Fold these 2 entries.
Entry 1:
Amino acid sequence: MWDFFSTVRHRHSVRHYQSDMPVEDAPLHAILEMACAAPSAGDLQAYRIIVVRDPAERAALAAAAENQQFIAEAPVCLVFCADPKRSAREFGERGERLYAIQDTTIAAAYAQLAVVAAGMGSAWIGYFDTDAVRRLLTLDTELEPIALMTIGYPAELPTATPRRRINDVVSFR
Ligand SMILES: Cc1cc2nc3c(=O)[nH]c(=O)nc-3n(C[C@H](O)[C@H](O)[C@H](O)COP(=O)(O)O)c2cc1C
């Protein structure tokens, strides 16, 4: 088992998957548990995570995401949806506008690292037609799809992408 720093360093976007290697229920459950272990404003977990395994639905998600075909290829696609009304009940406009999205993306980030720890790969997809995703998953109108995440066993060895220098993104005061 890798330590936390190695886990973070080994996470790279995977855009080719072994479509004949399913994601078993046990690791998927562990990944979802880690998503739900993330912090959230007021501990409200103002999000919903939809697990899409069905090949036809994955193909439809790929079509809704400008034909990013690896979405159809990966055996699982998680759809992270914010639930702004849930946060608004406690935190009003700030909860609706900010916290629900933060809750959702932190949960997704935890899930993405858990995928590495589970020996699989993932990609975060933000480029999709929100209404198309809403329609095809018949989502509750209160839910806002924020990110898709493919999960599966990699069929490629992705290389590390560069990052901005720490001093360009951090200010010490
Ligand atoms: C908000 C967000 C949106 C993204 N949208 C897409 C996307 O639509 N398609 C895609 O292939 N990758 C997408 N990515 C993945 C990034 O391209 C990728 O994380 C970045 O290039 C760094 O590469 P790495 O993940 O391998 O470190 C997205 C990532 C984030 C955080």
Entry 2:
Amino acid sequence: MLINAQLDYTEADFNAIASLVYNRVGISLHKNKKNLVYNRLIGRVRANKLSNFAQYIKMLGDNSHTEWEYFVNALTTNLTYFFREHYHFELLKAYVNEHFVHTTITEPVRIWCSACSTGEEAYSIAMTMVEVFGTSKPPVKILATDLNTHVLSIARKGHYTPDQLERVTEKQMHQFFITHKHNNTYEIKPEIKALVHFKRLNLMDRQWPMNSQFQAIFCRNVMIYFDKNTQRSLLNKFAHYLPAGSLLFLGHSENFPDHQNQFVLLRQTTYTRV
Ligand SMILES: C[S@@+](CC[C@H](N)C(=O)[O-])C[C@H]1O[C@@H](n2cnc3c(N)ncnc32)[C@H](O)[C@@H]1O
């Protein structure tokens, strides 16, 4: 009976959690998320055998506590699917076709999928690259990063259920997936997995570890969780990683903050670095 009892959770607790998560990972939690936060974290409070949220917050006062990983994992929203906002993949295809397919390139095309969740977006990019180059080994390197370690482990495995493949065509299904009949799942083929390197990265980290630039960055459906200042500084950081003429893809509901002169809108939330 005690297991299902409500645990003490005050306005002050919510504010403390909102401030912890904002400072560490940039996610800005509005007051109306109070219940959602309770539901997302209650399991963590119990897993740590604590009897209220105040104790949990105290525990997070230790910046290097292992609970931090579970805490941020619990508070991220990870919805994604294959070929989400499909026009971006068409634009990417046209861009790569125009600049890299018919010329001799000495370096692989580098693409960063910067909030990759469970992997569908990064693998959609990889499939697009195989299609545009017309080979299962295109000269492409895809870096796929996310903050959440749980979604990254799903992404690395690359196993999906039939309903997750709704937007994948029959042809792509045969070309890019292995069918596992015994449990009715589809696994990304090794040659597609080989194009993607998954790594944990917090977009809020003052410094990122990459030291080369990218021909395209995908940062879709994550900036909506950040406030304007955070969005602005993130875009400034992306600008350093994009040479002139390269592309930045944002999510459909993401407005570009004002005073941005490093990017111009190409079309449909796709920007060119100027
Ligand atoms: C809604 S999903 C979007 C997934 C994919 N980009 C798409 O558009 O389908 C948002 C992702 O952003 C990640 N995220 C949130 N804050 C982050 C941060 N500070 N650094 C890196 N990733 C973050 C979450 O873990 C989550 O997987």
